[in-house]
Amino acid sequence: MLTNIKYKFKLFLFGAICLTIALVSCQKEKGLGEDPYAGGKKPLDLTFVSKTIEPDVVNAGDVLTVRVKGLSKYINDFKVYVNEIEAEVVTGSTNDTTLTFKVPLTASTGSMWITSQGQSFFGPVVKVGGKVSVDASWKVINGATNNSNNGFSLSTIYDIEALPGGNYFLGGAFNDFELNGTEKLPIGGIAQILGNGAYSTSGVNFGKGAGGADKSIYSITRIPTGSQAGKYIIGGSFTSFNSTRINRQTLNNVARLNTNGTLDSLILRDVINPKPQETYKNGDTVAAFNAGVDGLVRKTFVFNEQVYLVGNFNNYKRMYLPNSSYDEKVYDYTRMRQVVRVNMDGTMDSTFHYNKSTRQSAIGANGVILDAMMQNDGKLILVGTFSTFNGTQANRIVRLNLDGSVDNSFNAGSGANSDIISIRYNANTNKIVVGGTFTSFNGKAASGINLLNADGSNVTTFTGQPITGGITNFVGQLNNGKIIVSGSFNKYGDYLRQGFMVLEANGQLAVGYNNTGGFQGAIYDMVETTIATGSQVILVGDILRFNGTLPHNIIRLNFAN
Question: Which residue pairs, CB below 8 angstroms and at least 24 apart, start in 346-355?
């Protein structure tokens, strides 16, 4: 009986499914009785015959000819575009089978196409050459990488420091450079390259480099004069240098390196030893620069034989050696928010950003400090997400006096209406350039870029265009006045610019410097060197792609005059 019921149920279910399919089929037949595409425009019989452009690379302003088919029917009703920029048609040389046009002065590498009667017809890629080129003699191949197996593989280069002999130090979050690092001896956030980009250990021995915390070096500053001249201050997020032993991780995000890249150390005798049977613990080796902070150091500066630390920390830390043992270190803490100045032995300078009555720093910024620069007179300019500093209005930018107080003579006025991410100063032009997410600066419309005089006032001759599709996260002015801008944007005004562009000092796109193609990533620092034909610029950061090349976070570009 039960089997019979199951059979009847299956028969009923099968019949219901068949009925449903039949109904749906009838509805489809009824619904598709009329052509759903009826009324649509018939495709124009216009095609490109040329699949490539001759020559392979052209210059802005060049006259090009491509072969087409069927153009005469639309000869009075069509437009030509190169990477979204309309091109001028040379009518006297254009007919049914031939299209002649001029490459727009502001066009960058990309596809060309024809539009007519609301339809578009895509042709070959136009490779625009110009005054910017990747330096083919640059020796970096694999660049900065990270071979960690813990899923965290950041390999950013945050800083580049030019050395007197023509070499460079690189600081960042990488643990390998040019595939020279190993698991036993990683390249921990610091490397040396020659002037041509080749990796070199000549004259330096960083050992394992930065360890502990984020194992990252954000800033490298050479000490130019004084008793420690030729040595280096490094800042970032690390607790050791050239050591992986737990009881040797006694650094606090800042250290001083000798001229050969080793940790500047001090040998102590007669140290407290709770385990006298272990006689080797009667002495100790500690950092000679006895200073640190409890958070990330974003920038380091040296002025008048004193070290400035800028970042997002709350306390200054100094090892108290009389009570410290080989295995256990004791620290003195002083409440110091975001900025501190220390002497060359690491002692804190209590005449800077410090209130002796409260025994701590002033309030500091009510947001994050993202970048900083130091002027020739030792005054710091800080930028970031804050709107006040030490209780005084300072919309994303502030200059500090030599005692750490707010410099009210800085003429930034109402500042920026949103975050400032990048700031750089060019001594050649005596100008400051800032970049970020702001749309106005001190009452002036400024879409993510603004040029300032050294006193903080707006350069009135600089007029930028709206940036859309993303933000600006790096700006830097070249010695000839032109401005490098990078970010995640895709348009500058009406012009397509994919994350990288070069502007004139007045804010207009620099003609001839528009062959940069697509850019992906973020730039954190740059170094410019003057050469006979113009300048060479090394860019470092988290640089993934530049105009079809894969830079691996460091690239050198040639900028022709």
Answer: 346/287, 346/289, 346/290, 346/291, 346/318, 347/290, 347/291, 347/318, 348/291, 348/316, 348/318, 349/306, 351/403, 352/402, 352/403, 352/404, 353/400, 353/403, 353/404, 353/405, 354/404
DSSP 3-state of 296: strand
Read off φ and ψ for residue 548, nearest 5 degrees: 90, -10
Residues constituting the chain: 561
* DSSP state at residue 355: B
Strand positions, DSSP E, 410-561? 420-426, 431-436, 440-441, 444-445, 449-453, 467-468, 472-477, 483-487, 491-492, 495-496, 500-503, 519-531, 534-546, 554-560
Per residue in 461-500, pLDDT tens? 999 999 999 999 999 999 999 999 999 999 999 888 889 9
Q: What number of other Cβ atoms are within 10 A of residue 150's Cβ?
A: 6
With the CA atoms of 381, 386, 387 and 393 taken in that order, what torsion angle do they form, in degrees rounded to the nearest 10?
-40
Mean pLDDT value across the chain = 91
> DSSP 3-state assignment of 122?
strand
Say if residues 454 and 466 touch (Cβ distance below 8 Å): no
- Using the predicted structure, report yes or no on whether residue 334 has a pLDDT greater than 90: yes
Asked if the model's pLDDT at residue 18 lies above 50, the reply is no
Most distant CA atoms of the chain, gap in Å: 105
- What do you get for the CA distance between the two ends of the chain, in Å? 97
Q: What angle do CA 530, 160, 155 make, to 5 degrees?
A: 135
Cβ 207 vs Cβ 214: under 8 Å: no
Instruction: Quote the pLDDT of residue 321.
Output: 93
**272, 324 Cβ separation under 8 angstroms:** yes
User: What pLDDT digit, counting tens, does each position of 408-442 carry?
Assistant: 999 999 999 999 999 999 999 999 999 999 999 99
Residue that has been written with the tokens 């032993």 in this structure: 245
